[in-house]
Amino acid sequence: MAGPVLKACKGCNFISEADICPRCGEQTSREWQGYVAVVDFEKSEIAQRMGITANGRYALKVR
């Protein structure tokens, strides 16, 4: 049995199951690569480089 289909936002790269991003309201896509989980965005160098301003799951590349 397959799990939920994860989609990434085309605007902010946030990963969710929704067709519209719950964070920014942009459309989501099934076409994404890479995965990063941000636990403390204020101290994360990766989050700073990606422009992430909230904890959560993010795709590295979205098409």
Brief summary of the model shown:
The protein is built from one helix and seven strands; from the N terminus they run βββββαββ. The chain is mainly beta. It has a three-stranded antiparallel sheet, with no helix packed on it. A two-stranded antiparallel sheet has the order 4-7. A two-stranded antiparallel sheet has the order 5-6.
Total helical elements: 1
**What's the total number of strands?**
7
Instruction: Please describe the biggest sheet, giving its number of strands, its sense, and whether it closes into a barrel.
Output: 3 strands, antiparallel
Q: So what's the CATH class?
A: Mainly Beta
Query: Roughly how many Å is the radius of gyration?
Result: 11 Å
Structural class: mainly beta
Helix-strand topology string: EEEEEHEE
Percent strand: 25-35%
Q: Note the overall shape.
A: globular
Residue share in helices? under 10%
**Quaternary state of the chains:** single chain
| Level-2 CATH architecture | Single Sheet
Poorly predicted segments: none
Mean pLDDT: 96
Distance separating the two termini: 26 Å
- How many domains, in number, for the residues? 1
What is CATH's topology name?
A: Rubrerythrin, domain 2
Give me the side-by-side strand order of the main sheet: 2-1-3
Molecular structure report:
The protein has 63 residues and is mainly β. The protein has a single domain, classed as Rubrerythrin, domain 2, CATH 2.20.28. Helix content is 10%, strand content 27%. It has one helix and seven strands. The protein has one helix spanning 45-50, and strands spanning 7-9, 15-16, 28-29, 32-33, 36-38, 56-58, 61-62. Strands 2-1-3 form a three-stranded antiparallel β-sheet, with no helix packed on it. Strand 1 and strand 2 (15-16) form a beta hairpin.
